[in-house]
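Notebook entry, structure prediction.
Reason for the run: the old model in the group folder had no record of what sequence produced it. Starting over properly, with the input documented here first.
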Amino acid sequence: MLGLVPRHQPTNHENGYDKNNSRKGVVFLLYNAFFHHTKNGIQMKFIIVILILLATFLLGTCLGYSQVKEEKTSQKDIEKYGNELIENDFLKYANPLKINTLEKQIKTSFNIYDRDIYRFAHIDAEELAEFSFEMFLPQLQELLDKRNITLSVEETEDYQETNNIIVNGEVINLHSKQDLENMTFWDSAPKNFFRKINKILDTEHSNEQFYLLYAGNDLSVLLLTNKQFEIIRDKYKNNPIEIPYLP
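New structure, fully documented this time:
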């Protein structure tokens, strides 16, 4: 009886394909697919598909690398600016029991808005322009109490006609009738209000000023030295909406 001689099966190596090398594997598969699909223009279509897939792969790789590099750079910048703020007394009035946590937040995520730092307050331009001082005044008084500065705000008896208020005993106009007519009173009221408070800070020989942040219902304030403001401005030079501004 004749013995059957098994038909020789080419090894992966003989086929030019090494299973431990993914790039060689891809080349091998493409080679076989390309030379076994040549009828009726399929070959050209296949080439186009492969080129598109290759371009997509290369683009994704480049974008992924760029994103990782940008994230690393961004994190490095955050730590740099965070350290600069801390070195310039940003946590001078912060809750002493939370100093370590606050430092970490600033260095890792540049969270400068924590209430325990005693520099940030949410105001809401609508509440301020409509004389709802009780909605935000306690926050401002918390910040100023830390600095031994007194703030009192009350409406005048004729405030509905004049739009006047009394700040630390002095009458100021919160916004004019023209501001109401032009629908700009949400903008003018915060500026007039915090200009007055900044004058009080000057009188008390403070080296800090209130800077406005955002507008409308998101209006907030940061109480900063000029140096602290410059650091924050530089940090957000490519994102102007995050840069606080004087009233």
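Summary: Residues 88-242 form one domain.
The old model has been moved to the deprecated folder.
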